[in-house]
Amino acid sequence: MNRLTRRARYRLAVAAASALAVVGTALVVPGLAQAASTLGAAAAQSGRYFGTAIAAGRLGDSTYTTIAGREFTMVTAENEMKPDATEPQRGQFNFSAGDQIYNWATQRGMKVRGHTLAWHSQQPGWMQSLSGSTLRQAMIDHINGVMGHYKGKLAAWDVVNEAFNEDGSRRQSNLQATGNDWIEVAFRTARTADPSVKLCYNDYNIENWSYGKTQGVYRMIQDFKSRGVPIDCVGLQTHFTGGSSLPGNFQTTLSSFAALGVDVALTEVDVTNASTSQYAGLTQACVNVPRCIGITVWGVRDSDSWRSSESPLLFDGGGNKKAAYTSVLNVLNGAGPGPTGTPTASPTGNPTTPPPSTGGASKIVGSQSGRCIDVPNSSRTNGTRVQLYDCHGQTNQQWTYTSSRQLTVYGGSMCLDAAGTGNGSAVQVYSCNGQANQQWNVNSNGTISGVQSGRCIDVWGTANGQQVQIYDCNGQANQQFRLAAI
């Protein structure tokens, strides 16, 4: 989002249009003890995140940081990771402001979305002066340089931003002039630069399913998926202002993109005068679509917004919760333990409703190996990595799924714990502390995903002693487990 310079674009939007299968298992999922009191915690109940855009220049404002640290679980740098900020001179990168935001967020257990790598706007002057093959190479070099710095650290990247016109044709930018394949090249370059991060296309005015721009982006994603171009998600900015408001077919848009095999996310949400009905409606549409993985509002308080005169956010300038905040929180708390609605195919293992069962302690059995998740030698030492082992039903293989989404062992004294958030992070046992790295979504597609990381419990092999880790969810047999009665 380029602050105030793009306000007029949103007035081009058309008016609003009108508009589980469960794995067999033996685990009871308890009801939530009480409604969550923050946006991030409420969203996490259904395996989603709730995020905000952060500006490095405001991190010295204690009211700002207190709200942001309390309420949100995902952060997007407002301007600090864009091309003009990260490569002010060709080949000379500057990550100081971006790193400031990244460090602030991760020190608080929050994840970070990268925004953005290839965009016609906010290019540094040297890039604006290039064209043709020289510009194409500069784009490739920029993607490699920025993604190399943040490799393995971010949840997602907006690889390409705002590449379409309102009628669904390609925007005639300097990047488009390098050849119609520039977006594909950007995504293929990004996948090579960081194989572990989710790669997203991000745009505005693509919320209305019947709108030309929405259909243009849809056709591109459909083409990319059919040809194996690496793309993992679509970001719908969801700026509702002036003539653009919540369309009646918004959920159709989300589910239609998701049906192509990509995640969807609401990435830059703000609404004129913070309409409670529109905020509740866009949130409900997301929780109704299993592959809608999260919502990000574009700023913390109204006074921080690029549209501050329209009071579009969930907190007023004084940091007070607005009625729209409550409307969003209520929807998130009402989502239950997993996304509602009809699930779409989910190769990335997004959380769905946990399976029913008979309750009590259970064994966690790998579908591929037939072996159980086991604490080696019945260890009670913090940091002991769990493994696969022949099922025998002893206490070091007895797990209980709690109302706080923990998997406990030894009668609840220790918890299944992720040692980190990146691919390959160890899954271990640790004294229960209630943190997000000890919370798990037991999904109806057979996967178990970490609330903090979004990654799935994973094994590389099937033999006794095979160590357990977390890895990007792919729904394959080595990530499928069933919880069965002892």
TrEMBL record:
Q: Which GO terms describe its biological process?
A: xylan catabolic process
Which keywords does UniProt give here? Carbohydrate metabolism, Glycosidase, Hydrolase, Polysaccharide degradation, Signal, Xylan degradation
- What's a single GO MF annotation on this record? endo-1,4-beta-xylanase activity
Q: Where is this region: Disordered?
A: 334-366
Leading EC class: hydrolase
Under PROSITE patterns, the record lists: GH10_2, RICIN_B_LECTIN, TAT
- Keyword Transport attributed: no
InterPro entries according to UniProt = GH (IPR017853), GH10 (IPR044846), GH10_dom (IPR001000), Ricin_B-like_lectins (IPR035992), Ricin_B_lectin (IPR000772), TAT_signal (IPR006311)
Residue span, GH10 domain:
33-331
EC number of the protein = 3.2.1.8
Signal peptide per UniProt:
1-35
User: For bias kind Low complexity, which ranges apply?
Assistant: 341-351
Does the keyword Hydrolase feature in the UniProt annotation?
Answer: yes
Q: What does it catalyze?
A: Endohydrolysis of (1->4)-beta-D-xylosidic linkages in xylans
Q: Which PANTHER family match?
A: BETA-XYLANASE, GLYCOSYL HYDROLASE
Q: Which family does it belong to?
A: Belongs to the glycosyl hydrolase 10 (cellulase F) family.
The protein depicted here goes by the name: Beta-xylanase
